Amino acid sequence: MEKINLGKQNSVFNHFIQEIRDVNIQNDSMRFRRNIERIGEIFAYEISKKMEYENTEISTPLGTSTESLMKENPVLATILRAGLPLHQGFLNYFDSSDNCFISAYRENKKDGDFEVKVEYMSSPDLNGKTVILCDPMLASGSSMILAIETILSKARPKHIHIVAIIASTEGVNYVKENITMQNCTLWLGAEDADMTAQSYIVPGLGDAGDLAFGEKK
User: Fold this and answer.
1) Per-residue burial over 108-133, b = 16 or more CB atoms within 10 Å of its CB, e = otherwise
2) Each residue's pLDDT tens digit, 33-87
3) Backbone angles phi and psi of 70, in degrees to 5
4) How far, in Å, CA of 186 to CA of 133, rounded?
5) I need a surface site. Which of 76, 93, 112, 200 has the fewest CB within 10 A?
6) How confident is residue 106, by pLDDT bands cut at 50, 70 and 90?
7) Crossing angle of the two packed helices 169-178 and 142-154, in degrees rounded to 10
8) In terms of DSSP bridges, do strands 99-108 and 114-122 run parallel, antiparallel, or are they unpaired?
9) Which of 129, 188, 116 shows the shortest CA–CA distance to 159?
10) 55: part of which helix (H) or strand (E)?
C-alpha cells in the first residue's frame, strides 16, 4: 500500500494543519471546520491527479476545445460525525460524486477499554468504483479497518484512497498489516509518533468531532 504524506511537502497545506492543531485557534469551531474543509479540498486536488483521464471535446461559443477530463467521479465516503467537514472539502471539488456514509462508534467496557462498532452504512453501488474514504484522525486504525471491511462486505471497489489528516504511526502500521485489499493508497497530512492509552494521538489536536460540532455526552 502506497503512503503519501502531503505534510512532507512545503505548501499552504501545512498552515491549515498548524491552525487545526493550535489550541489558541482551534476553539473557534467555525474556523476549525473551515480549515478541515480546506484540507479536504487540497487532498481532493492531489488525489484527482491519480484518476484516469480521457480527451473530451467541448463546444465553446467560438469553436471546439479538447480537454482531458476524468473518466469517472470517485465515490466519497466518510465515517460519521467527525468526517463531515473533511467530506465537504472533497465534495466541493468532486461535486458530481455519489456519497457513502458509515456510522461507527466506541462501545466502552467496564475495564476502561472500548470496542469500535459499525452501526450502518448508507451507500450507492461501489463495485468497480474508485472510493475515497476519509476520517480526520487515524489513531489506533481500528475504525478505518472496520469501515473498509464493511465496504468490502458489500462490494468490490476498483481502488480505495484512505485519507486521514493526522495519523499515529501505530495506526498507520495497523492499517498496513490488517487491510485485505491490495489496491489502496493511504493519504496523510501528518504522522505523529505517540498515542495515549485512550487512543488519542500525541501531539495530535484533541477530539476532532468535539472541536467541529461540540462536546458529546
Assistant:
1) eeeeeeeebebeebebeebeebbbbb
2) 999 999 999 999 999 999 999 999 999 999 999 999 999 999 999 998 889 999 9
3) -60, 140
4) 10
5) 112
6) low
7) 30
8) antiparallel
9) 129
10) strand 53-60
pTM: 0.92
178 touches 149 (CB < 8 A): no
- Residue whose C-alpha cell reads 511537502 in the numeric block: 9
User: What proportion of the chain, given as a percentage, has pLDDT over 90?
Assistant: 85
Predicted confidence (pLDDT) at residue 24 exceeds the cutoff of 90: yes
Q: Tell me whether strands 130-134 and 159-168 are parallel, antiparallel or unpaired.
A: parallel
Q: Which of 78, 128, 121, 69 is nearest to 96 (CA)?
A: 69
Q: Which residue in the block uniquely carries the three cell numbers 489558541?
A: 24
At 35, list the grid cell.
480549515
Amino acid at 43: F
Residue entry with cell 493550535 = 22
Q: Kindly state the helix (H) or strand (E) to which residue 146 belongs, with its residue range.
A: helix 142-154
Q: Which three cell numbers stand for residue 81?
A: 460525525
Q: What is the pLDDT of residues 179-212, one digit of tens each?
A: 999 999 999 999 999 999 888 899 999 999 999 9
What confidence tier does 117 reach under pLDDT thresholds 50, 70, 90? confident
